[in-house]
Amino acid sequence: MKRAFTLVEVIFALSLFGMLIGGLLAFLPWGVDGVAKIKDRNTAISLVDAVQVELERLGFVVVEAGTHRLNGMYEFAGEPNDANQINQLVLVGKRKGGGVSLEKVIRRPQVIGSDGKVSVDDTKDPQLLTNFAKELGGQIDFDLYQQSPISLKGMETIKSTGAQTYSMNRWIEPRDRYFAIICSQYPADSRHAHHVSNGYLALECEVQWPYKIFDPSNRNSSDSLLTNAREIEEKFRTKFTFPIAISR
Fold first, then answer.
1. What residues contact residue 72 under an 8 Å CB cut-off, 6+ apart?
2. Model confidence, pTM
3. Neighbours of 81 (CB within 10 A)
4. Domain residues of the chain, as ranges?
5. Local confidence pLDDT in tens for the 248 residues of the chain
6. How many separate helices (H) and strands (E) can be counted in the chain?
């Protein structure tokens, strides 16, 4: 005579099975989050080539002015020295990767410690730069969009209607600007510091994410291009740094 499972045994087996499945499902969000983090880091690493292309598109003069860090660069006597303020050039990229685009140029104070070490003061809000006066005369404008190749806005206004239209396929909507790439020159005491005798400009680029995210509650009716974009505080971003250089 064959013996069947009792009701108590069936209930116990189902309870044990449910506990095991519940425990495994509890790890599912961690696994999904881990996969997303790995994917974002791989995408961030893949932006290196796109950063090189965008810097070359902007040109040596614009990038040099947009990352200005040393005074006395073009003086005939003496060596360049660290300025009290530095310029940083910010690029942006989409979460899915691909090309990057110029976002803005900012200026931050630079602190020289008693030991002579130079550091950037990230505690103060940066100043937005729209232009920069060169040491040898002339001015670099960062916010031009009708004269190529510089474009911070990536759009043009139709005078008859006042409407704004995207004029370049490089334009990335603010809510899609997931990666920020902050490009800076090296300080004067670094072997990679910029010098007029160099045929290249070495930069330290820091990729930060998430930079901006979609937020339906954040709407600026005065500027449709700022609709639904919320910037994440820098202390909550993931970061990694890589060196890059462009030639004259």
1. 78, 79, 80, 81, 135
2. 0.77
3. 14
4. 47-247
5. 556 667 777 777 777 877 777 766 665 664 556 678 889 999 999 999 999 999 998 889 889 999 999 988 877 777 888 888 999 999 999 999 888 988 889 999 988 777 767 778 777 889 989 889 988 778 888 876 555 445 455 555 555 565 655 445 567 878 889 999 999 999 888 899 998 888 899 999 999 999 998 887 766 555 544 467 888 998 899 999 999 999 98
6. 4, 15
